[in-house]
Amino acid sequence: DAGVIQSPRHEVTEMGQEVTLRCKPISGHDYLFWYRQTMMRGLELLIYFNNNVPIDDSGMPEDRFSAKMPNASFSTLKIQPSEPRDSAVYFCASTSGGAYGYTFGSGTRLTVV
Amino acid sequence: QQQVKQSPQSLIVQKGGISIINCAYENTAFDYFPWYQQFPGKGPALLIAIRPDVSEKKEGRFTISFNKSAKQFSLHIMDSQPGDSATYFCAAGANNLFFGTGTRLTVIP
């Protein structure tokens, strides 16, 4: 298995633009998590899905952030409009057992200028 | 509100020494306590994990010690090597994981 695949690896965008981050979980995993990593706040859970259904989105910072999982093999995290304070590394992780045995992707480094 | 508190923020250890990183949690419903290792430019990777029904788990040079009554757990790296230099995160949870803020470990040759 190729692991959790995230794209793009790096994204630089101007403030106000829409940004879409993509994630392909490991086949057979039924949980998918989106985390944001910054120096100040560490790894923060944004949202997670179970069987493609959003379970907890309480970590989504504000309405500018949205996430979807249209099928078991694909998820997106969208920021519209983007702001400089959204600059961070965004990780996707998947697992077949809730908290147990997360596998993380390599992350997307987002820079909003 | 930080669900998991981790210390120290950074740690420098001589090669062959013991590295110790500590974590504390608040929620008694948590039933899974993993440690993750992260190298620059990579995602965190699972290193070792423990459930609350045991007080210690050892895998090679890595040991987790768990104190349920104190709601604390720690990672011990024996015979630390330069290749262990990385950022280590503790985590805790049940349906999802809450992470500590990380410890940057540097092992000096």
Descriptive terms for the model:
heterodimer, A: 113 residues, mainly beta, four-stranded antiparallel β-sheet, 11 strands, globular, B: mainly beta, six-stranded mixed β-sheet, five-stranded antiparallel β-sheet
**Poorly predicted tracts of residues of chain B:** none
Number of strands of chain A: 11
Shape call of chain B = globular
Please report the number of helical segments of chain A: 0
- Quick check: average pLDDT of chain B? 95
- Using CB atoms under 8 Å apart, which protein chain pair has the greatest interface? A-B, 22 and 21 residues
Structural class of chain A: mainly beta
Rough shape of chain A? globular
The biggest sheet of chain B amounts to: 6 strands, mixed
Question: Could you walk me through the main structural features you see in this protein, from its secondary elements to its overall organization?
Answer:
- With 113 residues, chain A is mainly β.
- Helices cover 0% and strands 55% of the residues of chain A.
- In chain A, the strands form 2 sheets. In chain A, strands 2, 4, 5, 6, 9, 10 and 11 form a 7-stranded mixed sheet that branches. In chain A, strands 1-3-8-7 form a 4-stranded antiparallel sheet, with no helix packed on it.
- The mean pLDDT of chain A is 95.
- In chain B, 0% of the residues lie in helices and 56% in strands.
- Chain B has strands at 4-7, 10-14, 19-25, 33-38, 45-50, 56-59, 62-67, 72-77, 86-93, 97-99, 103-108.
- The chains are: A mainly beta (113), B mainly beta (109).
Write the layout of secondary structure elements.
The complex is a heterodimer of chains A (about 110) and B (about 110).
Chain A: E1 5-7, E2 10-13, E3 19-24, E4 31-38, E5 42-50, E6 53-56, E7 65-71, E8 74-79, E9 88-95, E10 103-104, E11 108-112
Parallel strand pairs in A: 2-11
Antiparallel strand pairs in A: 1-3, 3-8, 4-5, 4-9, 5-6, 7-8, 9-10, 9-11
Chain B: E1 4-7, E2 10-14, E3 19-25, E4 33-38, E5 45-50, E6 56-59, E7 62-67, E8 72-77, E9 86-93, E10 97-99, E11 103-108
Parallel strand pairs in B: 2-11
Antiparallel strand pairs in B: 1-3, 3-8, 4-5, 4-9, 6-7, 7-8, 9-10, 9-11
